[in-house]
């Protein structure tokens, strides 16, 4: 279980998040949603350990994140960044292989995992291309393949094979077309079905509602307060027109979806 | 136990690793050839057979032929230290250039351009002029260590300054980095100018080569104390290759991959300053080796630091040996300072890199 316990974050004296409780368990796809400035990405970074909470704790399996050995932690938790700084001409295959850095499974296994991860993220045809020559969407999928390679399930003999692995995604669909948005969502759902914990910041409420097991809705703080968690739970429990209209500060309509699917969320026509 | 049971084509060609084997073999052979040339060519020609015979003898093997004493003397006391110095300095500068470029995530981060070499040169020049006075109580056998130590300290201060100024929140502002280099170079230049103003004739002669860079003064008594400073980074930096690869993704990403980023950064800065400082202490400021060499290696074999660092060491050694060969044979019986040769080649190369980056639409600084 990856959990934030009453986490508060201030950056340069400015409150960003206040008293947030959140937990991702094994076999669950949890989506963080909310308007701009609500602190979704900050919360994800707290859960990833790249930001330290001002108060409160982030724990993995009951132990504070910074008490875990960095390399062991990296073997079971990967983070997809919003954008990448990489500007050296690695090939796509090399970038994906970087995801194997924390593992000591040998080059043959690393290559095999990289191939499988590239296939899953649909970037196998790009394998020999240079990363610097790719479009924004292609880069995002390559990064996805890299983080998948990082937490790829080991062959059953490995000791870590029994521990839950976590994938944290920061706006994984931001520069993707419809088809590849769907690819990412299918990957996230499939990982959750296999027992991974998946936490994703998603902008698109409909995408989140259709794919995630649970939603956590964050609202920006007002009058010098940080962002806070308004509601979390199954999509149908979170997606209420009044609640969303209030949090997003714009009227929202809910249209009934297909049978068995959550409602479709639209901004109300003026 | 794949997430997707796809049958993958087994024919996926790993062309890059194969190319790297070829490049590495070529570099080793090339360096070997240039070393033999460097030992043989000069005011006195030493046939390859004689050179090999003397070296074999030095290694305890019986000499197959007798070599005139004069040639033996020239080889052991002039050519060999000079060759070793040029090779190690070239390797050190190239490796520290490659490491700094990885750390700063920019191919323009050369120890000369960002002011590390000047910082080392200023400290070395200070040691030459004031060292005797300041450390007069020191046992004389420790004095040869002062120069490389001082240069290392100066280089370290400069690299830390550059890093402080240009890096924050895991990102490097390249414009600031290069402008900080301009400022550091100017400050060091002024400092060295003052030292020249204050120095006597002998010190002036000693200082002169800092301006231009030279391996002509190589002798065993100066070379041996600095050897450790040069060899340690050459051996240690390649072990940071994986960390440097991860750092290219960004510091946060490297941390997520399980690397202890702050520790790795400290080691990289220290070792790069050590290599640059030792090279500057022994042969003055030799520009552009740290810029050109890693760039050439990346062009042919990609940016993987596990390959880039050792390959840059080999190519840097070979290229500086070649530059030294040119420097001492072009205007016989006189010699050109080697720094002039590397700048003549490196300056235009730098301009070409800038033009190429602009042509790609990326702007000059990204």
Topology:
The complex is a heterodimer of chains A (270) and B (366).
Chain A: E1 2-11, E2 14-24, E3 28-33, H1 40-48, E4 55-60, E5 63-64, H2 70-76, E6 77-80, H3 92-98, H4 107-120, H5 136-150, E7 166-170, H6 178-193, E8 197-201, H7 205-211, E9 214-219, E10 228-233, H8 235-238, H9 241-248, E11 252-255, E12 264-267
Parallel strand pairs in A: 3-8, 3-9, 6-7, 7-8
Antiparallel strand pairs in A: 1-2, 1-4, 4-5, 9-10, 11-12
Helix pairs in contact in A: 3-5, 4-5
Chain B: H1 15-40, H2 48-58, H3 69-103, H4 116-134, H5 143-166, E1 167-168, E2 171-172, H6 174-198, H7 201-212, H8 220-236, H9 241-247, H10 251-256, H11 261-283, H12 289-301, H13 305-329, H14 338-359
Helix pairs in contact in B: 1-3, 1-13, 2-3, 3-8, 3-11, 3-12, 3-13, 4-5, 4-6, 4-7, 4-11, 5-6, 5-11, 8-11, 9-13, 12-13, 13-14
Structure description:
The complex is a heterodimer of chains A (270) and B (366). By secondary structure, chain A is of the alpha/beta class. Chain A has one domain: 3-Layer(aba) Sandwich (Rossmann fold), CATH 3.40.50.300. Chain A is 32% helix and 26% strand. Chain A contains nine helices and twelve strands. Chain A has helices spanning 40-48, 70-76, 92-98, 107-120, 136-150, 178-193, 205-211, 235-238, 241-248, and strands at 2-11, 14-24, 28-33, 55-60, 63-64, 77-80, 166-170, 197-201, 214-219, 228-233, 252-255, 264-267. In chain A, strands 6-7-8-3-9-10 form a six-stranded mixed β-sheet, sandwiched between helices. In chain A, a hairpin with a 2-residue loop joins β4 (55-60) and β5. In chain A, α4 (107-120) crosses α5 (136-150). Chain A is globular. The mean pLDDT of chain A is 91. Chain B is mostly helical. Chain B has a domain at 99-319: Orthogonal Bundle (ABC transporter involved in vitamin B12 uptake, BtuC). Chain B contains 14 helices and two strands. The model of chain B is unreliable at 1-13 (pLDDT under 50).
